[in-house]
Write a structure and sequence with these properties.
Structural class of chain B: alpha+beta
Distance between the termini of chain B: 49 Å
Order of helices and strands of chain A: HEEHHHHHHHH
Number of domains of chain B: 1
CATH topology of chain B: Sulfite Oxidase, Chain A, domain 2
Strand content of chain B: 15-25%
Structural class of chain A: mainly alpha
Largest interface: A-B, 45 and 47 residues
Largest sheet of chain B: 5 strands, mixed
Oligomer: heterodimer
Radius of gyration of chain B: 22 Å
Strand content of chain A: under 5%
CATH superfamily of chain B: Oxidoreductase, molybdopterin-binding domain
Largest sheet of chain A: 2 strands, antiparallel
Strand order of the largest sheet of chain B: 2-1-10-5-6
Helix content of chain A: 55-70%
Order of helices and strands of chain B: HHHEEHEEHEEHEEEEH
Shape of chain B: elongated
Radius of gyration of chain A: 23 Å
CATH class of chain B: Alpha Beta
Number of strands of chain A: 2
C-alpha cells in the first residue's frame, strides 16, 4: 500500500466530521475569554478607586460628576458617603489590565489577519445574502422568544442574529474598547493626540470605556445564556474540540 | 509515522526554532535600544515591557498635549500626602529659602541648586493635564525650568540611561529614562497657575513628567541622581512604584 493511502478515506463514512469551529477560531476564542475576564475583573478594581464619571477633558472630586456608581471607593479621598474604604488592589490590577489588553490586541490581530485571509468574516460572520432583511432577523428572534423546538440555524453555520451580534462585537465594540483605552494613555495621546480629541476628552474616553464594557458584558451574558439554551456541553465541546455531538453521531 | 506528519513535524520544528531565535534577537535588540523597563521581571512584567517598548517606538519624542488657558481647571485637586514633619514646616516658614536640589551621579559637575538658582534659569511654562492612576484629572499651568537644561549644566555623561529623583518624603522616589528626562516638557516646577507651586501640589519643587501618570511627577523634589542602571536603587525595579505594586512606566 502506498504511503499516501492513509490520507484517502476508504469510504464516505470515514470522512472526518465537518468542523464546527476551526482551530484558529477555538484558540483565539478561549484566549479572548481569558483576556476579557482578566480585563473585566481588573477594570472593576481600577474603577472602584474612583467610582465617579465625567464628560469632557477633566474631572475630579472638585467637579460635579456626570454620574457615580453607588459603591464605596478603595481610596479615602473619594467622597462616596459610605464611610468605608474598600481594599485597594490597584497596583497589580493595573499591571494585569494592560498585560491582558496586550493579549487581547495580539490575539485579535491574529484572528483578524486569519479571518481576512481565510474569508472567515465574509463566509461566517457577515450575514449571508439571504439573511440581510429585518424579516429574517425577526423570524430568528421570534424563534428564540417563542422557545420553539429545534435549532434556528444549522449546526455548522451561524444564523443572522448571531452573525449580527458577532459582527458588532468584533468590528464595533472591541475596536471601541481598545480606542477608548488608548485615549486614556498619556504617552499614546502625546504621540497620537487625535485619539482622545476625536472622542471629546480624556474623561469622556474613560466614561465611554465603562459603557462599552457594559455592552460587552451584556453580550457575554446573552452569549452564555444562548449557549446554555442550545445545549451547554455540546456547544462547549464544539468550541473546544471543534466538533459537536450532533455532527459526530448524525 | 506517515510522510505528512513527519513533514508537519519538521515544519513545526523549523517554525519553533525560527520563533525562538526571533525572540532572542528581539530581546537583544530591545536591550540595545533601551526598550526593557527596570521592572520587566515582575509578575506582569511582560505586559509592562510591551507597553514601554511600544511607546518608545511610536513616540519617544512626542510632545504631551497642551491646552488653551481657558481649559485650566478652576478647582484642581491634589491627593493628600503624609504629614511632612517639623523640618519641612520650618523650611516652609522660611519661605523655602533653605530648600536645596542636589544633582549627582553620572554627571561631570555634581551641583546643589537653591530655589533662587533654579528661578534664574530659563523659564518654561506648559498648560498640561495631570492624570492620576485612580482615574481623575485636572489641567493647570506649570512654570519652571526644564530638566534637560539642568542636566546639560551639570554635564551628564554619555553612559547615562536614567534619572532617578527623590522626594523629601522618604518613600517616594521615581526614575525616568533619558527620553523623558531630556524631554523639553519635563520641567522642575516652581510655579502653578498664577503663583508659587502650593505645598499641596508639591511645592516648593515638583518634577512634572507630563507624558506619564501623576505618580511620576514627584512632589517635594530634593535630589536627582543620573545613572546607567537602576539595579542598585531600592529593590532594583526602577522606583518605589513597582515596590508598592505599581508599574514603573507611567505612560501606559
Amino acid at each position: 500500500m502506498p504511503c499516501y493511502a492513509s490520507a484517502v478515506p476508504a469510504n464516505p463514512s470515514d470522512q472526518p466530521p465537518v468542523e464546527r469551529h476551526s482551530a484558529v477560531v477555538r484558540i483565539t476564542h478561549w484566549l479572548t475569554v481569558i483576556a476579557f475576564l482578566a480585563l473585566l475583573v481588573t477594570g472593576l478594581e481600577i474603577v472602584i478607586s474612583h467610582p465617579r464619571f465625567y464628560w469632557g477633558e477633566v474631572g475630579n472630586v472638585n467637579t460635579p460628576p456626570a454620574f457615580t456608581i453607588p459603591i464605596a471607593s478603595s481610596r479615602g479621598t473619594v467622597p462616596t458617603g459610605y464611610g468605608y474604604v474598600m481594599p485597594d488592589q490597584n497596583g497589580w490590577s493595573r499591571y494585569l489590565h494592560f498585560e491582558a489588553a496586550w493579549l487581547l490586541v495580539l490575539v485579535g490581530f491574529v484572528y483578524l489577519v486569519w479571518g481576512l485571509w481565510r474569508r472567515h468574516f465574509t463566509r461566517n460572520i457577515l450575514p449571508a445574502r439571504g439573511q440581510r432583511s429585518p424579516g429574517v432577523l425577526f423570524a430568528v428572534l421570534a424563534h428564540y422568544l417563542g422557545r420553539k423546538a429545534g435549532q434556528p440555524s444549522p449546526p455548522d453555520s451561524y444564523n443572522p442574529v448571531q452573525r449580527l451580534a458577532y459582527l458588532v462585537v468584533i468590528f464595533v465594540l472591541f475596536p471601541l474598547i481598545i480606542w477608548t483605552g488608548l485615549a486614556m494613555s498619556p504617552a499614546f495621546t502625546a504621540a497620537f493626540p487625535s485619539t482622545v480629541i476625536l472622542l471629546g476628552g480624556r474623561q469622556t474616553a474613560r466614561t465611554l470605556h465603562f459603557f462599552i464594557t457594559g455592552l460587552l458584558v451584556a453580550f457575554l451574558v446573552v452569549h452564555v445564556v444562548m449557549i446554555a439554551l442550545a445545549g451547554f456541553w455540546s456547544r462547549m465541546r464544539g468550541m473546544i474540540t471543534g466538533r459537536s455531538p450532533e455532527q459526530e453521531q448524525p | 509515522m506517515s510522510t505528512l506528519s513527519r513533514r508537519k513535524l519538521i515544519a513545526g520544528g523549523i517554525a519553533a526554532a525560527a520563533g525562538l531565535s526571533g525572540l532572542a534577537v528581539a530581546d537583544r535588540m530591545a536591550r540595545r535600544y533601551g526598550l526593557i523597563p527596570p521592572d520587566s521581571g515582575v509578575l506582569f512584567g511582560a505586559g509592562e515591557t510591551l507597553t514601554y517598548a511600544a511607546q518608545r517606538l511610536v513616540g519617544a519624542h512626542a510632545p504631551a498635549r497642551q491646552f488653551p488657558r481657558s481649559m485650566i481647571s478652576a478647582k484642581p485637586f491634589a491627593n493628600e500626602v503624609a504629614p511632612l514633619g517639623n523640618e519641612f514646616q520650618s523650611m516652609q516658614a522660611a519661605n523655602f529659602s533653605d530648600w536645596k536640589l542636589t544633582v549627582d551621579g553620572l554627571v561631570a559637575r555634581p551641583t546643589t541648586f537653591s530655589l533662587s538658582d533654579l528661578r534664574s534659569m530659563p523659564t518654561e511654562s506648559q498648560i498640561s493635564e495631570v492624570a492620576c492612576e485612580e482615574g481623575w484629572s485636572y489641567i493647570a499651568e506649570w512654570i519652571g525650568t526644564p530638566l534637560h537644561g539642568i542636566l546639560r549644566e551639570v554635564g551628564i555623561l554619555p553612559q547615562a540611561r536614567y534619572a532617578a529623583y527623590f522626594s523629601f518624603q522618604p518613600d517616594w522616589w521615581e526614575s525616568v529614562d533619558m527620553s523623558d528626562a531630556l524631554h523639553p516638557q519635563t520641567i522642575l516646577t516652581l510655579g502653578m497657575n498664577n503663583g508659587n507651586l502650593p505645598v499641596g501640589f508639591g511645592g516648593p519643587l515638583r518634577l512634572r513628567v507630563p507624558r506619564q501618570l501623576g505618580y511620576k511627577s514627584v512632589k517635594y523634589l530634593r535630589r536627582i541622581t543620573v545613572t546607567d542602571s537602576m539595579k542598585h536603587f531600592g529593590k532594583g525595579l526602577g522606583s518605589a512604584s513597582p515596590e508598592a505594586g505599581y508599574a514603573w512606566y507611567g505612560g501606559i
